[in-house]
Amino acid sequence: MSRQPAAVRSGPAADYDYIVIGAGSAGCALAARLSEQPDARVLLLEAGPPDSNPYIHMPVGFYKMTAGPLTWGLTTAPQQHAMGREIPYAQARVLGGGGSINAEVYTRGVPQDYDAWAEEFGCEGWRFKDLLPLFVRSEDNDTLAGEWHGTGGPLGVSNLAPPHPLTKAFVQSCQQMGMPYNPDFNGPSQAGAGAYQTTTRGAKRCSAAVGYLRPALQRPNLTLRTNAQIQRIVIERGRAIGVELVEKDGQPVLIRAAREVLLSAGAIGSPKLMLLSGLGPADELRALGLPVHADLPGVGRNLHDHYGVDIVYELNGPHSFDKYAKPHWMAWAGLEYALFKKGPVASNIVEGGAFWYADRDAVTPDLQFHFLVGAGVEAGVPKIGSGSGVTLNSYTLRPRARGSVKLRSADAADKPIVDPNFLGDEYDLKTSIEGLRLSREIFRQSALGRYIRKEHFPGEAVKTDAELEQYTRRYGRTSYHPVGTCRMGVDAEAVVDPSLRVRGIEGLRICDSSVMPRLVSSNTNAASIMIGEKASELVRAAARVSST
Known about the structure:
Low-confidence stretches: 1-7
Strand content: 15-25%
Oligomer: single chain
Helix content: 25-40%
CATH topology of the largest domain: FAD/NAD(P)-binding domain
Number of domains: 2
Number of strands: 26
Largest sheet: 8 strands, mixed
Shape: globular
Radius of gyration: 23 Å
CATH class of the largest domain: Alpha Beta
Structural class: alpha/beta
């Protein structure tokens, strides 16, 4: 028996032209671009609070954000291939989404990632040559320009000024072990080591909420609502007509969209809301007493993420940012930032990186490394205690395991069941272990070695293949890059077509990382913003056609 939705209080026949659900990286870019049309009435809804926490806007504040009230507080289902652990799964619940709490690393992946979307999944219009202009249009780069980079766009992208000495030593160590120096991971070649560019401007975080949305909110045709409790997308006669919200008085209310509802709640939130709205695998919906408006077996499937494995080294002196945990050093760091916009507060901590090969026959790098100028920066990574340390994280860029997002119940307040199925493919495990070996090799080089006292975690006792495998299974974690749960394509399992329209439902698109058929070979924030840009073009093109 289907659950019948509660009676809702309805607004006017058409409150807005477009309703964008989710003010994350893609949603902020999408809403801002749509509001450039003066006659388009746009409503942007965000479940979380405004981005008013001061730590959001300090680059170093990332270390405060991987757990706490600005996340959804998710943990995974027990991971069958990772010691049965329920792994903390940080997903942002705040204006700006992941771009407000991430480490601000700006990488796009490689052209082959996007070309594969077209060649293997039928997503024409999504080849890299089609998308590079959108990346360039979005970017306001303080250093790079030309064919690969833009200036004057909404998204601030900056070089670190200057990188920490340990970051320089890391990059030199990578070169000593055979990697080339790479000053631009988003240029013609991804392979090599260098300092990351970050989504910052003027030594402050530049999320899509800051870069895109804040200026756009000056327009009278764009409305933002935060702390919006969204229950479901309302479907009538095969068309999305609006959304159901719960007001402060507990009363559900229907807000209508005259043209389209645009779902941008992320790779966990979007499939959850689709399922709550009766859009998904019919048998699962019926089992929970939900109506079936469209039988879409791919909703909530194809979840994959980067499984990161960390090693931590203790230093032979107070060389890293760990020393700033002491009150007098903390005060000095705050003063330096306030006066000069420099020092540790202006750092994203994850300053250096590398893309390299576990399989030297791979066409493009299959491993990514993040070097952190501190120990225990992120939730779940061991600290040094009273000493000073650094962390190196690595992950398999193109994991083959696939997982799922499912409803726990028909109650929108319940957290979904998130199962990334980490290490569910032998390739993922093998590549992760090679990432650990290469991480250790980097630290054996003289440029970094002169700072090292000892390997703190896992420790030198972990040596054999079996021990490295156990370590990988026991201590790996999410890298905050879930994608694919409402994937794009032309086959029966695809949830949206290459124009991001939900199959079988009119007036509804999905416009976020959940539509990626396959994970890009890098961090995902830049690609998510690009999806928001692409979605705005598709929506505006449809509006032009309908008006003629």
